[in-house]
Design brief:
12% strand; 4 domains
Length: 754
């Protein structure tokens, strides 16, 4: 073997040892020579090794996807060495005393003091014995780099102290710290088992912040902006506060008066929604999420709102820059009636929300159709249209407009093909399926379209001075909080651990609700969290699972497999939440919910004996969480867990993951001659099969699913329209991005050609 002369021989010995563990790899001598060459060129050891790994990875081939594990082993050695140096320990393979780590990082103000007050030294030693360093070898290089760069605890100077298995253990200890002492260690061990085996991942804020003295643990928040100057600025302040703590934000703008509406009786004074959207846009740019990722804010608007066209144009790259919000994400709230009007090529009315409220005495967006084809929304819409025709809303173009529905859809699709958005939120479908409609209404979804929970605006009731202080009294609305984690399907299903996994996962999520009471700075979100105790158990790795099971994406087998799998996950999630309710009590708003009445089970035709028993138990003892399932995009955490994102098909079998500080080749997980055929590119798949799969899943998911369309840039308008119509008719609650290719990205289908 050729080893560059001046290179650190310990590093090269590591490489030789590691390669010996991978007998299936070819060209071992060439790899060692390459790493040695680039390490020597790099100078400082740490930087040299990173440079060496990246250069070697650039030569990765689809024939040797295991090279990513070789690179991960090398990077692990670097992390271990850095941790040993920083912690001044002789720990085995970098892992030293867990108690010493906790004491050190608590003293530095990085860990929360609760870890030391909740666990005795003897308990911490017992948990240290549970740590399994060999599970670090489950990581790919991109997974380990992502975990190490963004989530492991470091000193304020940036040095690594915490190692991967310790991060999992600290998360488990933090989330279980409030459990009864007689069961606490058992539950910590179960949570550690679930995370360290990569059977599940916690959401990014939990992964980053659990056990630490800063940041909160929830993924996303949804606010309903009140139509008042105070309400608008309060909402913006709340968005900034939550973004600072690591949360993604969604703001519903459907109640804000339109451009040209009156203010205090003065006609034509309102500037509409765009200036307030620009205020949120600047907030997203200015307030990042603890320095780990930039602030992310979505705004949602109704397809029957008069500022619709300004909203749809807001992310386009041409036109008046004063009307653009390039850093926001857009979501459109769509009733059944609009889809019907577009399909039948009829006219559609756009209303100013303020004018409707003033003239009609109600807000149109407060209604939805309780049944397909009939209901409150279309009745109120027809009333408003008739009133507009009688001149009660003023002249056309003032309090209302009339536009062909299909022309609106054309603008929607134009924006989607150019920018990927707006997301589609089918408000009637969502609200009909809402198990907590007795307590409110779902106005919009979150940043990633998987959350469907009740929302409402917060208003200021009074403000006065007292004893030299200013006292502000607010009437809090439902400020939605998303508490997420996800099952790694390919690993958990293949190892047959769902029955063991889901109860501990639901408990972890439920504990996030309690732990966040002190961490969330927006108090109406704290109150909503307590009221509903909502969680979002999700999944990722669907394409990975289908590939290893040998199931073609475009097949009836895949559709029926999704149906059975997600029904099982739903059953286990509801059962786990019910067991928690028996132990800790039901969520406060349970009474009158469709969980309590049994309608939730009846509407989904859950009629087997197993389901009947669970239905009766839930009715008798309650449910701990108002909402249980939500399938998020999981782009980052699926990389850490070496699987495919969410329910998405893969882009390519081999691609490069690009971040601001690295570009790393990635191959599809478990890529072998056997799975190769089943990894067909998303852009080569018939999207109608993806819709059918998602419809089968959606039946069993009480919230929603981040579901993308993958289309070629050559798609015809009628074809994209057909996809949207099919998605709506199939009962999808939301669709996420419309991802289209550029000409340069189009290639022959690798699976077909092979």
């Amino acid at each position: 073997m050729v080893i560059a002369g001046g290179t650190d021989h310990l590093i090269m010995k590591w490489l030789e040892d590691i390669l010996f563990d991978f007998p299936q790899l070819n060209k071992k001598e060439e790899y060692i020579e390459q790493v040695g060459y680039y390490a020597e060129k790099g100078g400082a050891q740490a930087e040299a090794m990173n440079m060496a790994i990246l250069h070697a990875l650039e030569r990765i081939s689809i024939q040797e996807p295991d090279w990513t594990f070789v690179a991960a082993r090398i990077h692990l050695r670097k992390l271990y060495s850095e941790a040993v140096k920083n912690r001044n320990t002789d720990g085995t393979r970098g892992y030293g005393s867990l108690q010493g780590l906790i004491l050190t990082l608590t003293d530095k103000g990085i860990y929360e003091e609760n870890l030391l007050s909740s666990y005795s030294p003897e308990e911490i030693d017992e948990l240290e014995a549970e740590i399994m360093p060999q599970r670090d070898e489950l990581f790919t290089y991109i997974g380990l780099r992502t975990l190490g760069d963004r989530y492991l605890a470091k000193s304020h100077e940036g040095g690594v102290y915490e190692l991967p298995q310790e991060r999992f253990m600290i998360i488990a200890m933090s989330l279980m710290s409030g459990e009864p002492s007689e069961r606490r260690l058992y539950l910590v061990k179960e949570a550690y088992w679930a995370m360290s085996n990569l059977y599940m991942t916690v959401a990014t804020p939990t992964l980053a912040n659990a056990g630490k003295s800063y940041g909160q643990l929830s993924s996303c928040f949804i606010d309903t902006m009140d139509d008042s100057l105070r309400g608008i600025y309060d909402s913006t302040t709340d968005a900034a506060t939550l973004s600072k703590g690591g949360g993604g934000i969604s703001v519903y703008l459907g109640k804000i008066r339109s451009l040209g509406s009156e203010i205090r009786g003065f006609k034509g004074n309102s500037s509409g929604i765009i200036p307030w959207a620009k205020l949120l846009n600047q907030t997203a740019v200015s307030v990042d999420q603890l320095g780990q990722r930039k602030g992310a804010i979505a705004i949602y608007y109704n397809v029957f709102g008069k500022d619709l066209f300004s909203f749809l144009d807001a992310k386009l790259n041409n036109g008046d820059e004063r009307q653009r919000v390039h850093d926001l994400f857009l979501g459109l709230c769509i009733p059944d009636l609009f889809m019907e009007k577009a399909e039948s090529r009829e006219d559609w009315y756009l209303f100013d929300p303020y004018t409707v409220k003033k003239v009609m005495g109600y807000e149109l967006d407060d209604f939805y159709d309780e049944e397909p084809g009939k209901g409150s929304f279309r009745a109120k819409y027809d009333e408003c249209a008739a009133a507009a025709d009688r001149g009660l809303f003023g002249e056309k173009g003032s309090g209302y407009d009339v536009v062909p529905a299909i022309e609106i859809f054309k603008r929607i699709m134009k924006s989607q093909l150019e920018t990927g958005v707006p997301y589609m939120f089918y408000r009637d479908t969502v609200n009909r399926a809402n198990p907590n409609k007795h307590a409110g209404m779902v106005y919009c979804s979150n940043l990633c379209t998987e959350i469907a929970q009740n929302g409402s605006a917060t208003t200021v009731e009074e403000e006065f001075t007292q004893d030299g202080k200013i006292v502000i009294t607010k009437s809090p609305g439902d400020y939605v909080t998303c508490n997420l984690s996800s099952i790694s399907l390919a690993k958990a299903v293949k190892d047959e651990v769902l029955e063991r996994l889901i109860p501990i996962q639901v408990r972890m999520l439920d504990n996030v609700v309690d732990m966040n009471q002190e961490r969330i700075e927006v108090k109406q979100a704290v109150l909503t969290n307590k009221k509903y105790r909502a969680i979002g158990l999700g999944t990722f790795g669907l394409h990975h699972l289908l590939a290893v099971e040998g199931i073609r994406w475009e097949s009836e087998e895949a559709v029926s497999y999704n149906d059975r799998l997600y029904e099982k996950i739903s059953y286990l999630s509801i059962r786990a939440s019910h067991e928690l309710a028996k132990e800790k009590g039901a969520y406060p708003a349970f009474k009158g919910s469709e969980w309590e009445t049994g309608v939730y089970f009846e509407d989904r035709n859950y009629i087997t004996d197993e389901w009947k028993v669970l239905k009766q138990q839930v009715q008798q003892n309650g449910l701990r969480n108002a909402w249980l399932m939500a399938v998020a995009p999981n782009a980052t955490t699926s990389l850490i867990a070496n699987s495919t994102a969410s329910v998405d098909p893969i882009f390519k079998k081999e691609y490069s993951e690009e971040k601001k500080d690295f570009r790393i080749p990635v191959t599809a997980p478990d890529l072998t001659p056997q799975t190769n055929w089943y990894y067909k590119s998303a852009y080569e798949l018939d999207q109608h099969w993806s819709i059918r799969q998602n419809a089968a899943r959606q039946k069993h998911v009480d919230q929603s699913i981040s579901f993308n369309f993958y289309v070629k840039n050559t798609i015809k308008a009628k074809e994209l329209l057909d996809l949207h119509m099919t998605a709506w008719k199939s009962g999808l609650k939301t669709t996420y991005y419309t991802r289209s290719t550029s000409i340069a990205e189009l290639e022959d289908c690798e699976s077909c050609s092979s």
